[in-house]
Amino acid sequence: MIVFACGISHESHSFSKLRTEISDFEGADVGAIDSKPELLDTRSTEGGILSAAQEFGWDLRFPFCAHATPSGPLAEEAFETLVGRLLGELKRAKAVDGVLLALHGAMFAEHVPDCEGEILERVRAVVGPRVPIAITLDLHANFSDRMAALSNIATSFRTTPHTDQWETSNRAARLLNEAMHRGTAPHVYVARLPMLAGMDMGRTIDPTGPMNRLLAMARKLELETPGVLDISLNAGFYYGDVFEAGPSVTVTAHCDDASYGDLAKKIMLAAWETRSFVSLRHYGVDEAIARTREVASGVGPVILVDYTDGPAGGAYGDGTQLLSALLVENPEKTVVGPIYDPLAVDEAIKAGVGASVRLMVGGRIDPAYGGPPVEVFGEVVRVSDGNYLRKGPYATGTTGHLGQGVCVKCGNVSVILVSRRQQPEDREQYRIFGIDPERLNILACKGINHFRADFEPISRELIFVDSGGLVSVDFTRFPFRNVRRPVWPLDDDVAPPQ
Ligand SMILES: [Zn+2]
């Protein structure tokens, strides 16, 4: 079997000023992933596909797997370059028996709102109607009708933090393998309700939370219902201002039968019931600092989670409100960062390790979301190339890049500045700056969900902060234009679904 696999993945925040360029993508160059056996042992999307290819004896063509930190809409050139490379390699592979695409589901370009639907349409035009196409998605996908019509198999992550990237791509590969051998193309059904948010943003940390209950329902129905190959839940990405934004359920089935669409709707109706449930409480900056005083002693760090400025949700990662408050408070053994600021990094590196520096830090992209630049006066104690090997549960074994970075010590507070926007996700990101997160009193990081996999087990307490960043939980801050209306929670007159 000749199988073509390729990945293009990005979560695009419609209201971010930071346009996503081709240079923001890692792994975008054609570099033949099928000839990189070292990826076999990683807990990644690539690892799941390579393992399946080995197991099934596929002749795999896997030219690249590109992904970028969530940010604003893709520049037209970035989208066209990536998709052009994908189509060029697909045509070079000639008569393929199956296609496996690793996508996100919430990618948005300045000229194409439904990027995944567009990619599928262009791929389908090359391979024709009979070759099965499987797609893997992040569970924060905004799943469109066009994606359902043009794919044969769709399966999404089942965990947030997304620690099942390997399992998801491996599952898609298994379903694709069966479809290729059977010679029949499965169908994908999708159901949505007038909901922009819900499913507790897909969080699966609390075993009794709504997402886990819905996932259990999906697993049961998947087993019980003849002809069902996969049921996936997408919590949606509500900062993606597209018509079909919000939670959805997909059913992949052997044959074309409207009852599978009803099955998807049945789970969506259960999701409607818990739509307003949010498992996190967000504190204001002052409230959060006061809370750290209340839990002043104990084992492991108190983690101040600067949630609304989290790059994992498309925020800028250069907000300064929490930094500013902590510099004044000056609590013992405290680390703030990473904060995105390539200019400040440059200045600190030029000054060198041991030098005293006075830097203006952060707040450069849009101070309206997270505060203006803040003066940081301290000693440069460490410079790093920002490369780290992920050793925690999230994408284990793969390498990550913070870009050139520095650690500046200001009293009791160490500030980590980096030149690449990257979410906190692995303790190694601190070890490369000579910091053991386990020994800290306070760690202030810009995490949302994924950092929890490696950091929650060592923490004394997590305190979620709303510092006014772009991942705001206040929907009224955003001028939605494209999402279907009426929709909960933007409108009051949303009729309960039948
Ligand atoms: Zn996600």
**Sheet with most strands: strand arrangement:** 10-20-11-19-12-18-17-14-13
What composes the largest sheet?
Answer: 9 strands, mixed
Mean pLDDT score: 96
Count structural domains: 2
Q: Which kinds of small molecule does this entry bind, naming each only once?
A: zinc ion
Strand elements, count: 20
Radius of gyration: 23 Å
Helix vs. strand class = alpha/beta
* Cα end-to-end separation: 45 Å
Low-confidence stretches: none
Total of DSSP H or I helical runs spanning 4+ residues: 12
Approximate helicity band: 25-40%
Q: Tell me, what's the shape?
A: globular
| Proportion of beta-strand residues | 15-25%
Describe the structure.
- The structure is a single chain.
- With 498 residues, this protein is of the alpha/beta class.
- The chain folds into two domains: 2-273, no CATH class; 282-472, no CATH class.
- Helix content is 27%, strand content 21%.
- It is built from twelve helices and 20 strands.
- The chain has helices at residues 45-56, 76-93, 115-127, 145-150, 165-182, 210-224, 259-273, 285-294, 321-329, 342-351, 428-431, 452-455; strands at residues 2-9, 59-61, 65-67, 98-103, 133-137, 153-156, 187-191, 228-234, 248-253, 282-283, 302-305, 334-340, 356-361, 374-384, 387-389, 399-401, 405-410, 413-418, 442-445, 461-465.
- Strands 10-20-11-19-12-18-17-14-13 form a nine-stranded mixed sheet. Strands 1, 2, 3, 4, 5 and 6 form a six-stranded parallel sheet that branches.
- α2 packs parallel to α3 (115-127) and α6 packs antiparallel against α7 (259-273).
- The radius of gyration is 23 Å and the shape is globular.
- The model has no long low-confidence stretch (mean pLDDT 96).
- It binds zinc ion.
- The site of zinc ion has 4 residues, from loops.
